[in-house]
Structures are given as C-alpha cells and as structure tokens.
Amino acid sequence: MPDAARHDPGFDPATLDLRVVDWTRELLLQSEHGAHKRICLVTPKLFGTRAIKGEMIIYPPGTEAANHHEGAAHFMYVLAGSGTCYADRERHYLRSDPEVEMRFVEFFIPGSYQTVWAKGANVCAWVPQGRNIRGEKAAREIQAHTSAAPSADI
C-alpha cells in the first residue's frame, strides 16, 4: 500500500511482520444482532500496522446487516455465493440470496475507523465463539467488541 505511514505514523516497512494466516484456524466471531459471522484476517496484532484492516464475512442464506458506513476506504471481494449490495454513495448494506451462503473479504484503509450506523439500526457487536469455522479451538483469542468505536488492536 503506497504511503502507508500516512495512515499509521508508526509504520516502518523494514520491521513489518507479515504472516500467512490460515483463516480456517482463526477465531469465529458472531454478530450479536444477526446471523452473519466474521473472521479477522489483517489486524495490527497479526501484521503490525494500523494502515489496513481485513476480514472475511459470512452471511448465511437470507442474511443481511443494517445500513451503515465506515470512515475508511472500503473494498469488498465476493469469494462464494451470491447476494445483493444496496448502496447510496458510501452508506451501504448487503443481503445474501435466500438459498445460498455468501462469503466475502473486505479491506479498510485506514484500518482504524469508526462505523456510522443508520438511524434506528442496531450497532453490530461481535461475540467470540471460542472456536474456529471447523469447530475446533481457535489459533488465538479475541475479545468481544463493537463497531461503534474505532477498531481495536485485535
């Protein structure tokens, strides 16, 4: 990412600690207000920078999240399944098709931001499930957190 120090003053490419992460071993987080799940892929603890954040989101069939907007550039790439993205400039939400699970990865620049929720929407809280997507003990622990505050150093 060009000029990453703009988003993370402590960024030093010489000391960047990039890792290969097996997402199937990472902790599964469940939305407190919906059926969607999250797996963290790029975090300050995993990569040593706040310049970027990345995660996999899993929407079971017929699942949607509340209308929201993040204070960061946001890129999504669908890995499996299908659904619909509803967008009004930056404010957006997604819905998976009724018969198919949808999985996508999303990346945010900068990696530390605050989510803004539509009026009346439940703030998304992420609750650790104590296991990975395989149902086994996860490779690391993450505390429960909410997207109402700037992202934690998970």
**Whole-number average pLDDT?**
84
Q: What's the main sheet like?
A: 7 strands, antiparallel
CATH homologous superfamily designation: Jelly Rolls
Secondary-structure element string: EEHEEEEEEEEE
- The oligomeric state is single chain
Number of domains: 1
Count of helical regions: 1
Number of strands: 11
Characterise the protein shown here.
- The chain is mainly β.
- It has one domain: Jelly Rolls (Sandwich).
- It is 3% helix and 36% strand.
- The protein has one helix and eleven strands.
- The strands form three sheets. The protein has a seven-stranded antiparallel beta sheet with strand order 5-8-3-2-1-10-11.
- Strand 6 and strand 7 form a beta hairpin.
- The longest helix has 4 residues.
- The two termini are 20 Å apart.
Keywords:
36% strand, 11 strands, two-stranded antiparallel ribbon, 154 residues
